[in-house]
UniProtKB/TrEMBL annotation:
Keywords, alphabetical: Signal
InterPro entries, per the entry: TAT_signal
Source organism of the structure: Nakamurella multipartita (strain ATCC 700099 / DSM 44233 / CIP 104796 / JCM 9543 / NBRC 105858 / Y-104) (Microsphaera multipartita)
Protein name, UniProt field: Uncharacterized protein
Signal peptide feature range: 1-30
Record has Signal as a keyword: yes
Length: 438
């Protein structure tokens, strides 16, 4: 039996990252004393954070995140240089503390933290403003207090380490398809086909996001009872044109605007319409495919449903759609490629009265949910040979309800954070005119 490979590279990478963050924080905190003190501070910070990283890694058990004390220390160290830079730009302690608390709240995602962060920052700024603490010190102290208070007040885990360096074949509910570059975009599948040496077919004329609705059969869903329009949509998705109407909750808008500007647009992924101007741009929906030899020698088709803005083809969603069965149930897993990883939504099918189909992540079963994976390829074309480190994201909820109302095919795609709704995408699906029709 081959012994397990020691995680040397991940440990050294984490150690180097911690030392770098500690050096930057130490230099920022010591900068008011001059260059020599800043250099000394950088050395002390690097050694200190590298030491705590080593201790935390030795205490970390398989399947666990690094200990909380180290995550808090890294958070405080990361914002110290930002506080130093803000002070250099003329910001005072109150502004720095409030902004730091707001940043912590936004990164905490859940509504309570989004509200709690700025409030705590404002209070910290009022107290620290009476001292002679530097901007770096104010930022680090505020983040430290925020993280400790947040850990005491909000005990539900935001993420959970599910697997570390596990073969992809052992995790059927994760789609192991990563982006090779820092931009995903609508050409993702074409680039993947070149990597795999497989046949690429863009904008396939008549294909669905699933090969057959029968693959989703299970105790909660009988495909034979589905409305014919619902079945046709899933098995022949490209026959339909989509109209989308996003309904955002007010509390999430500031965070989403920041995410959209900093993450979604530069990444070319998960760039959901925000307002009426976005809606008026229209949505283009298409499915690209790759065909290659599967593991058993039979042809395997990879389906990528691409939704983009009709005027510029800027991506909205780029998702790899797969189905699989576990025991007596079928599941839908949608993988959204990101650089060196993927975000997967695995959804359980349930029947809806009237012949509709609900796909939901809410279930006591082990597979449904959302997963963020870092993918370490084995150098081959088969993703099953890759190793995955996977975080479960239990606070994120999703429900897609496809049904027919008054002869119109509709869908409501609802999202929640820790049980609180933040977005519903209302779809109307219209059959495209037949080829050659006026």
């Amino acid at each position: 039996m081959t012994p397990a490979r020691p995680p040397t590279r991940p440990f050294l990478g984490a150690l180097g990252f911690a030392a770098g963050v500690g050096a930057a924080a130490g230099a920022a905190l010591a900068a008011p004393g001059g260059l020599r003190r800043a250099v000394a501070g950088a050395g002390i910070g690097a050694v200190a954070l590298a030491t705590t990283e080593t201790v935390s890694r030795h205490r970390q058990r398989p399947g666990e995140l690094p200990p909380l004390f180290q995550r808090i220390a890294v958070s405080a160290a990361l914002v110290a240089p930002l506080g130093w830079a803000a002070e250099r730009c003329g910001a005072g302690p109150r502004t720095i503390a409030t902004a730091t608390g707001g940043l912590g709240g936004l990164l905490g995602v859940r509504p309570q933290k989004i509200a709690f962060g700025p409030a705590l920052g404002l209070a910290a700024g009022a107290l620290l403003g009476r001292t002679r603490m530097s901007g770096a010190g104010v930022a680090a102290a505020t983040m430290l207090v925020y993280r400790v208070s947040s850990a005491l007040l909000f005990r539900d885990a935001q993420v959970r380490l599910l697997a570390e360096r596990v073969p992809a074949a052992e995790l059927p509910f994760v789609v192991p398809r990563a982006a090779r570059s820092t931009y995903v975009g609508t050409s993702y599948l074409k680039d993947l086909a070149e990597q795999l040496g497989a046949r690429y077919d863009p904008d396939v004329a008549d294909i669905g996001i699933v090969p057959s609705l029968d693959e989703l059969a299970g105790p909660d869903f009988d495909p034979a009872a589905a409305d014919p329009l619902v079945r046709e949509f899933y098995e022949h998705t490209t026959r339909f044109r989509l109209d989308i109407d996003p309904q955002w909750r007010t509390w999430i808008r500031p965070g989403y605007l920041l995410y959209r500007s900093v993450v979604a647009r530069p990444l070319g992924q998960a760039n959901v319409p925000m307002n009426q101007r976005d809606i008026e741009r229209g949505v283009r929906s298409r499915i690209d495919t790759i065909t290659q030899a599967g593991r058993g020698g039979d042809p395997e088709t990879i389906r990528c449903w691409i939704r983009s803005y009709a005027d510029t083809d800027d991506p909205i969603y780029v998702g790899i759609y797969t189905t699989y069965r576990d025991a007596d149930r079928g599941y839908v897993s949608v993988g959204f490629p990101v650089p060196q990883g993927s975000f997967t939504a695995t959804l359980l099918p349930r029947a809806r009265p009237g012949g509709g189909l609900i796909l939901t992540s809410s279930s006591d079963l082990p597979h449904p949910g959302h997963y963020l994976a870092v993918i370490e390829p084995d150098g081959g074309a088969d993703p099953a040979g890759s190793e995955l480190t996977v975080l479960a994201v239990p606070g994120f909820g999703e429900r897609l309800d496809v049904h027919v109302r008054d002869g119109q095919l509709r869908a409501e795609h609802a999202f929640t954070l820790f049980g609180r709704p933040f977005l519903v995408l209302h779809y109307r699906m219209h059959r495209k005119p037949a080829a050659g029709a006026e």
